[in-house]
Amino acid sequence: MTTEERLVTPEIEAAVNRESEAQVLEVERGAIRQFARSAGYTNPVYYNLDAAHAAGHPDLPCPPGFPGRYPYEPGKSNTTFSNPLRADTPTNPKLTRGLNGGMWTRLLRRVYAGETLTETTKLVNASERVGSLGPMLIMDTEVTYRDEKGEVVAQSGFTSINY
Q1: Cα(110)–Cα(55) distance, rounded to whole angstroms?
Q2: What's the pLDDT tens digit per position in 122-148?
Q3: Closest Cα partner for 27 from 61, 77, 65, 64?
């Protein structure tokens, strides 16, 4: 690829290792129940406070993969997923299709209903290669979740493949 054809733009290169602004996530009982139900979890600790207490939890625990929900703000949030509208991770506008290249989650401690977390996102790598789909932009992103004390409670990451 020539410099003009590069998929990793200067804006994308400048974003690598730059942490986003912190975004708030609210951990609510209703959201925990909704996520657990949609993910197929049947353990009563995700639905019933008495069952959670009997299992030694102070409140409903977050199911694996659920760190809370963004509070919706009209005009400031995505109308489908409620995540904040932000442009801190640039994309290449020439690439209109995408694939999930993989995801991971690391829980450092249980998160419970009633907590408020903050989330920061960082693009950790951007590369390009040619595959069977043609030229592809591959971006690895890491997300860090902190509690009210600023302690890291979870981390996650994902790889996006744009072509």
Answers
A1: 13
A2: 999 999 999 888 999 999 999 999 999
A3: 61
Tokens encoding 74: 């009209």
Residue 78 confidence (pLDDT): 74
Q: Mean pLDDT highest for which of 33-37, 62-66, 82-86?
A: 33-37
Residue with tokens 């030229």: 135
| Cα separation, 140 vs 3, whole angstroms | 22
H or E element in which residue 12 lies: helix 10-15
Supply the pTM of this predicted model: 0.85
Complete domains list, the chain, with CATH: 3-27+67-162 (3.10.129), 29-65 (no CATH)
- Sign, CA torsion 91/86/116/37: negative
- Tell me how far apart the alpha carbons of residues 39 and 159 are, in angstroms, rounded to a whole number: 21
Residue that wins the pLDDT comparison between 123 and 83: 123
CA geometry: angle at 29 spanning 142 and 80, to 5°?
Answer: 55
Task: Give the number of other CB atoms < 10 A from CB of residue 91.
Answer: 16
Reported as type and span, the H/E element at residue 30 is helix 29-39
Task: Kindly report the number of other CB atoms within 10 A of residue 136's CB atom.
Answer: 20
SS3 content of the chain, % helix, strand, coil (to 5): 20, 35, 45
